[in-house]
Design a protein that fits this description.
Helix content is 42%, strand content 18%. With 351 residues, it is an alpha+beta fold. The protein has two domains: 94 residues; 232 residues, BirA Bifunctional Protein, domain 2, CATH 3.30.930.10. The structure holds 3,4-dihydroxyphenylalanine.
Length: 351
């Protein structure tokens, strides 16, 4: 046998002994294809052997040619088989992996939050009143009946004191039903004159589209000598002007609260149907009246002064109290108070 033929046979037997192992060692489709190219590709080992066939004497060529062809078929078959194995393994890994949840929200860049609309409106109201000279006075949410009702002139059988309307705890305490308790707390601890606001949470047994069992109020009161309704009206007009916008009209309608005399309810001109000339067309928000009620007010009743140890002959004062949710609803045209408490991000994002 010629030397050429012997060298070819050595190469062939090495290749036959190793190609399966080389394919087994490839763990990815790409590395398998690379390995296959090293054998069968244009510059592959078996291709190189085929090219040497020309130098083999004719008598040996046929036999060697058959060996080469057989080996080539074996390599091709082994490649195909290994390729299928790798594809099957990849598919199985996909099936074994935790499943995709197509309903998961996309990964978005971190989203910034912002103050809750109730906090925003509360802060805006506080800012306006502080700018008018009122100081913030805090107080507890679990309150004595005395401070919440009795000293404010509520008779013992007043419906507001009823089990149905208030959340009673123990020992004559209840969850305060309004922030007017701060009037009592301030007037029993401070000597007049004084001017305070009291933002805070209050509780009532109420739950429907316009009432929540927990809501927010801001109380505002001033005690000084010779305070009149004109002072009250002036502060309310200034508040409406700064909070709802220039030219917002205010009107007082006589009303009754045990702790003021005279007492009134206050309406502001509806911000939703205001015409350029300042008149109101009337709309669904203001129920076609052009006015929206926002708070209760009045001149502090002499009996409140007396029960707090302040001489009503010398001192006078005004007070008003508003619901923060109520004002927020008016300012933003929110149809249902409960939206403010559900904290649905789609709702909150609008503010
Ligand atoms: N406290 C009353 C309420 O919760 C609101 C109120 C009315 C407060 C008249 C006042 C006032 O200071 O003078 O409904």
């Amino acid at each position: 046998m010629s030397e050429q033929a012997q060298s070819i046979e050595r190469s062939l037997s090495t290749l036959r002994a190793t190609f399966r192992g080389r394919f087994e060692a490839a763990s990815t489709e790409q590395s398998l294809r690379d390995e296959n190219a090293k054998i069968l590709g244009k510059k592959g080992e078996l291709t190189a052997i085929l090219k040497q066939m020309g130098g083999v004497p004719a008598d040996a060529r046929k036999a060697i040619g058959e060996v080469v062809n057989t080996l080539k078929q074996e390599v091709e078959a082994a490649f195909a088989e290994r390729l299928a194995t790798i594809a099957r393994a990849a598919r199985q890994a996909e099936l074994d992996a935790p499943p995709f949840d197509l309903t998961l929200p996309a990964r978005l860049p971190a989203q910034l939050g912002h103050a809750h609309p109730i906090s925003r409106v509360r802060d805006e109201i506080v800012d306006v009143l502080v700018s008018l000279g009122f100081a913030v006075h805090d107080g507890p949410e679990v309150e004595l009946e005395e401070n919440n009702f009795t000293k404010l002139g509520f008779p013992p059988d007043h419906p507001a004191t009823d089990m149905q309307d208030s959340f009673w705890t123990t020992g004559g305490m209840l969850l305060r039903t309004h922030t007017s308790n701060i009037q009592v707390r301030a007037m029993t601890t401070h000597a007049p004159p004084m001017a305070f606001i009291a933002p805070g949470v209050v509780y009532r047994r109420d739950d429907d589209a316009t009432h929540s069992p927990m809501f927010h109020q801001i109380e505002c009161f001033l005690v000084d000598r010779q305070v009149t309704l004109a002072h009250l009206r002036g502060v309310l007009a200034e508040f409406a002007e700064r909070f709802f916008g220039a030219g917002t009209p205010v009107r007082l309608r006589p009303s009754y609260f045990p702790f003021v005399e005279p007492g009134a309810e206050v309406d502001v001109g509806c911000p939703f149907c205001k015409r350029p000339d300042g008149t109101r067309a009337g709309c669904s928000v203001c129920k076609r009246t052009g006015w929206i009620e926002i708070l209760g007010c009045g001149l502090i009743h002499p009996t409140v002064f007396e029960s707090c140890g302040i001489d009503p002959e010398q001192w006078t004062g005004f007070a008003f109290g508003m619901g923060v949710e109520r004002v927020a609803i008016v300012k933003y045209g929110i149809p249902d108070i409960r939206l403010l408490f559900e904290n649905d991000p789609r709702f909150l994002a609008q503010f």
